[in-house]
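Researcher: Good morning. I'm working through a list of sequences from a screen, and I'd like to move beyond sequence-only analysis. For each chain I'm collecting a predicted structure so we can compare shapes side by side. This is the next one on the list. No need for commentary yet; just the structure.
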Amino acid sequence: MRHLLLAGGGHAHVEVLRRLARQPLPGWRITVLSREAKSPYSGMLPGVVAGLYRREEALIDLPALARRAQADLIVDSLAGVNAATQRALVERGAPLGYDLLSVNTGARPDVTRVPGAAKYAIPLKPIDRLLTRLGNLAAGTHVALVGAGAGGTEMAFALAMRMKVTLVAGAAGLLPGFPDAFRRAVRHALSGRGITLTEGENVAEVTRDALLFPSAPAVPTQAVLWATGAAPPDWIAASGLPRDEAGFLLVTETLRVVGQDAIFAAGDIAGFGARALPKSGVHAVRQGPLLARNLRAAAAGGALTAYRPQRDALILLSLADGTAIGTRNGIVVHGRWVGRWKDWIDRRFMRRYAEEPA
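Model: Good morning. Structure tokens for this chain:
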């Protein structure tokens, strides 16, 4: 039998497994390689931090999902790829041969570019380590959160439920690229929750008890969370595989790695070159069905389909108090009903991977 290796338990791969459970791939053996047995859903992470959800409610049971897909699960981390021999290296086990490889291991906040960040900052990913470290912080701790994209901003609201929070937006400002009306509504909500927002300069250095800037006053802090930038895993550079300017796996619009018929990539680890997409779980979720379709087509030697991202995807940002702010097509909505809407979407997503195939 030929071998399909799914490296990573991210949002795209859980959808691939769900579809394989419904429609097996004849003649193929399936292996899932994941760093963790429970795959965290990023859309519910701030809710877990805020106490809106139990930790278990935001975790997808990969062993159960793999069983339904008749796939083997190996709990280990991808450490490299040798495309010439079609072998994937893992951190603790023996190399894994493959006929088709799909990579959906995600990215991590880049703590390498700012002095002191790697030593003192807590990255938002990996999620399991983040939750453990946040659990060690006492209520009332002053936390500085660096990075004011959607993920960082939503986390600031979650942390503010039990901590003092400063959101450091840097030179890019609050929610860069989002509609002005949405940014104004979020800015107003930050002020109403007592969250301090700083903008204008990027962090120049992180120390044990402060963030330093080129000319702006230092921000004293007892803990630093890092949610800015995205860094690829180190193994990509050593693999010789095509990379984009940021070092991520360079893929075509079909999610196939450029020049590699046997390798696909999806989610944050995939780079689209000049058609760069934000590193967002939204794209990983939307790429899942197409990745499943294209892996099946590649297994059969068929034609592949191109990924067409939405021009204006729905964004729902939880304020961690049961309300949320949403935007799509320039329309901004806010209130408790928007919070219920987001909760319904998130719980529906989780049920999709907890239920047996019909």
